[in-house]
Amino acid sequence: MRARGWAGIGLAVLIGAALLRTFVRIVPADAPEPSRPAAAEAGALLIPVEGVPPSALSDTFAQARASGARAHDAIDIMAARGRAVLAAADGRIEKLFWSEEGGRTIYERSPDGRRIYYYAHLDGYAPGLAEGQAVRRGQRIATVGSTGNADPAAPHLHFAVHELRPGEPWHGGRAINPYPLLAKPR
């Protein structure tokens, strides 16, 4: 009876060790923490202006514009003229466009086609940037400026995110607030 009891305990220890090895990774105390890119967080976007920390962002999404006729539907990221504008996520350049309000703009479509990232008031495009070009998160795509209806004394990036239905054009969609997607703790 005693031998059978020890055999049961031994079997339980072996099964426990196998399960522990399956569910627990043992690493030395001085091993570096594995890095996890911010993109792994659901919906997280890279702040699209080089060197701007989350603490420098303000949620201006619902602010009324000067005319009071419409909401902002974007956030403004203040930065020096010429500062690098980075792709907030992987995607494809859908449209390079000039408008009276936005000035020099970029429309970038997400790989699944469900979002448009809109960058406006740009001073210039990155050399070689073209419609249809694939871009990677963090890639330099433009520089901050004050084109369009932006105050020349306050260069900034006007950044918007639009959710699209299948087949909806680059200029369509429903505006969603980019602030929580950018200011998320990293």
TrEMBL record:
Keywords: Hydrolase, Metal-binding, Metalloprotease, Protease, Zinc
Source domain of life: Bacteria
Cofactor(s) needed for function: Zn(2+)
Keyword Protease: yes
Residue intervals of the M23ase beta-sheet core domain: 71-177
The keyword Protease belongs to this UniProt entry's keyword annotation: yes
Pfam families, sorted: Peptidase_M23 (PF01551)
InterPro entries: Cell_wall_metabolism_enzyme, Dup_hybrid_motif, M23ase_b-sheet_dom
CDD domains, sorted: M23_peptidase
PANTHER family per the UniProt record, alphabetical: CELL DIVISION PROTEIN YTFB, PEPTIDASE-RELATED
Record protein name field: M23ase beta-sheet core domain-containing protein
Organism phylogeny: Bacteria, Pseudomonadati, Pseudomonadota, Alphaproteobacteria, Sphingomonadales
